[in-house]
Write a structure and sequence with these properties.
Helix 2 (24-30) crosses helix 7 and helix 7 packs across helix 8 (169-188). The protein is 44% helix and 15% strand. The N and C termini lie far apart (60 Å). The relative contact order is 0.12. The chain has a domain at 5-205: Lambda Exonuclease, Chain A. The strands form three sheets. It has a five-stranded mixed beta sheet with strand order 2-5-6-7-8, sandwiched between helices. Strands 1-3-4 form a three-stranded antiparallel beta sheet, with helices on one face. It has a two-stranded antiparallel sheet with strand order 9-10. The radius of gyration is 26 Å and the shape is globular. It has helices at 14-17, 24-30, 39-46, 58-65, 67-78, 122-126, 132-145, 169-188, 198-207, 221-255, 280-286, 288-293; strands spanning 5-9, 82-84, 87-91, 98-99, 103-105, 110-117, 149-156, 159-166, 260-262, 267-269. It has 311 residues and is an alpha+beta fold. The longest helix is centred in the C-terminal third of the chain and has 35 residues, at 221-255.
C-alpha cells in the first residue's frame, strides 16, 4: 500500500488530543487485541460519550520516568544509537491516522518503542511472548512513518527484553482498512458491536447508568436471535457447571478431612479458611442507630431475560 507520509512538529498534548485521531495505542483496541480496552470503549471515547482521560497513577508515571532508561538499556544491549523524535506523523490520505513515536534509531529507517511491565510478566517475556496489541501498535507506527522496522523494548524489572518487527505491507493494508472503517463509525455515530470484555460492560454501565421506566422497546429480529442464543448458552453453561461440581465433589469425597492430595502431574487442596465480617442483621437489630448512620445506597441495573407466556 503506497501511503503519503506527512510530518510536523507536535505542539499539543497527545494525552489531551487523542480523541482527534487514531494513534498507535488505539490499533490493538480496534482489532480486539487489547485486553484492557475494547473497540466499543474506544468508539465511545472518540465520539465523546465517555471520557478518555486516564487518571495519573504509579504505573503511568513509572512508564514516563523510565522511558529514557529503557532507551539507554536498549542501546547498551544492541549498540544502536537512538534519538528523540518530537514529531507528529500522519497519513496524508487519512489525516486522522497519526502517531508519535518514542525514538528513532540512528542510521536505520527504524523506530524504538519503549515499554515497562510488571515483574510478574517476566516468564512471558522471557519466553518471547510479547502482547499482540504491541505488534499492532508497531505496524501502525510503520504505516504512519514509512519505517521499515520497529524495535520493541520492554523493561520487566529487573530484566530488559526486546524484539523487532519488520514492515508487513499486507498487514498494514488490513490495518489501515480497519482503522478507516472504525473512523467512519466514529463520524457516523455508529457503534461497533460490544464484545464480552469488562471494558465493554463497564462502558455500557457508564453510558446507561439508569433505566427509564417510561420506555419500552420492541425487539428486532437480531435482538431476538441474541436472546435465544444467550438462553441456549446459559443452558449449556448450567450443564457444564453441574459437571464441574460433580468432578469437584468426587475429589472432595476422596480427600475427606485431608488438606492435600498429590499426584504425578497435579496437586489438589481443600483447606479450611476463615473470614471475619459484620453481622449486619444483628447490628440492625441491636444498634439500629449505628446501622442507619453507616448505611450506603448504591444504584445499579439488573439484566434478566424471561420467556413470555401466551396471553
Amino acid at each position: 500500500m503506497q501511503l503519503t507520509i506527512k510530518k510536523k512538529p507536535y505542539d499539543g498534548d497527545p494525552a489531551k488530543d487523542r480523541d482527534k485521531f487514531i494513534g498507535g495505542s488505539d490499533a490493538g483496541a480496534i482489532f480486539g487485541l487489547n485486553p484492557y480496552k475494547s473497540a466499543y470503549r474506544l468508539w465511545a471515547e472518540k465520539t465523546g460519550k465517555v471520557s478518555s482521560e486516564i487518571p495519573d497513577n504509579d504505573a503511568l508515571r513509572t512508564g514516563r520516568d523510565l522511558e529514557q532508561y529503557v532507551a539507554e538499556r536498549f542501546s547498551e544491549k544492541t549498540g544502536k544509537k537512538v534519538r528523540r523524535d518530537n514529531t507528529t506523523y500522519y497519513v496524508d490520505e487519512y489525516p486522522f491516522i497519526a502517531g508519535h513515536v518514542d525514538r528513532r534509531v540512528v542510521g536505520e529507517n527504524a523506530i524504538l518503542e519503549c515499554k515497562t511491565a510488571s515483574s510478574y510478566q517476566n516468564p512471558e517475556y522471557a519466553a518471547g511472548n510479547f502482547p499482540p496489541h504491541y505488534y499492532a501498535q508497531c505496524q501502525h507506527y510503520m504505516a504512519v512513518t514509512g519505517a521499515e522496522k520497529v524495535y520493541l523494548a520492554v523493561l520487566c524489572f529487573p530484566h530488559l527484553y526486546y524484539t523487532e518487527y519488520s514492515r508487513d505491507e499486507r498487514e498494514i493494508e488490513a490495518l489501515i482498512s480497519g482503522e478507516v472503517n472504525f473512523w467512519n463509525m466514529v463520524k457516523d455515530n455508529t457503534p461497533p458491536a460490544p464484545d464480552g470484555s469488562d471494558s465493554s460492560r463497564n462502558t455500557l454501565d457508564e453510558l446507561y447508568p439508569s433505566s427509564n421506566p417510561e420506555r419500552s422497546l420492541t425487539m428486532p429480529k437480531n435482538i431476538v436471535t441474541a436472546v435465544e442464543t444467550l438462553e441456549s448458552m446459559k443452558d449449556t453453561a448450567k450443564k457444564l457447571d453441574a459437571e464441574i461440581k460433580s468432578q469437584e465433589n468426587i475429589i472432595k469425597a476422596f480427600l475427606g478431612d485431608a488438606e492435600t492430595a498429590v499426584g504425578t502431574d497435579w496437586a489438589v487442596t481443600w483447606k479450611t479458611s476463615k473470614r471475619t465480617g459484620i453481622d449486619s442483621a444483628r447490628l440492625k437489630r441491636e444498634r439500629p442507630d449505628i446501622f442507619e448512620h453507616y448505611q450506603k445506597t448504591t444504584e445499579s441495573r439488573t439484566f434478566r431475560t424471561k420467556r413470555r407466556t401466551a396471553e
